[in-house]
């Protein structure tokens, strides 16, 4: 390999350098013609203002009445739900008590059967001893 070829191989490519952005002059504000104001009555009559106030008060009263009715309805519904939950809970507790009594009766019957079997086995053993013994 010649020296020129070695230099070509050994040289790394130069990195690109970011150039700073050019400053662009700010746009000048555009002057606009004066816009006429929207139609606003110069004087508002006191009757109109009082009428609006009365209408707002009436709407507020209606909304308040509706809110009270909703609160009353919710309160009644909550009471009904509480009664229903209490009734359901009472029925579940009653069923649990019945189940406990039934389980106790089953255990009692099982003990009675086991004792009867034990007595019968003792009688049979005594019979076998007496008969064969």
Strand element count: 0
Order of helices and strands: HH
- Helices and strands: which structural class? mainly alpha
Strand content: under 5%
* Uncertain stretches: none
Compute the number of helices.
2
Mean of residue pLDDT? 82
Helix content: over 70%
The shape is: elongated
* Main sheet attributes: strand count, strand direction, barrel closure: none
Rg, alpha carbons = 51 Å
- Distance N to C terminus: 122 Å
How would you describe this structure to a colleague?
The protein is mainly alpha-helical and 133 residues long. The chain contains 2 helices and no strands. It has helices spanning 3-10, 46-132.
Quickly list its features.
mainly alpha, 71% helix, single chain, elongated
Describe what is shown at a glance.
With 133 residues, the protein is mostly helical. It has 2 helices and no strands.
């Amino acid at each position: 390999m010649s020296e020129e070829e070695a230099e070509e191989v050994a040289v790394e490519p130069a990195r690109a350098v970011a150039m700073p952005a050019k400053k662009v002059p700010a746009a000048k504000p555009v002057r606009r013609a004066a816009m006429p104001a929207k139609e606003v009555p110069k004087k508002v009559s006191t009757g109109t203002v009082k009428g609006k106030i009365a209408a707002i008060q009436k709407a507020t009263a209606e909304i308040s009445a509706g809110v009270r009715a909703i609160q009353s309805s919710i309160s009644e519904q909550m009471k009904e739900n509480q009664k229903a939950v209490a009734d359901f809970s009472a029925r579940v507790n009653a069923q649990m008590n019945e189940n406990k009594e039934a389980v106790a009766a089953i255990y009692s019957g099982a003990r009675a059967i086991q004792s009867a079997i034990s007595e019968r086995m003792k009688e049979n053993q005594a019979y076998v001893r007496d008969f064969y013994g």
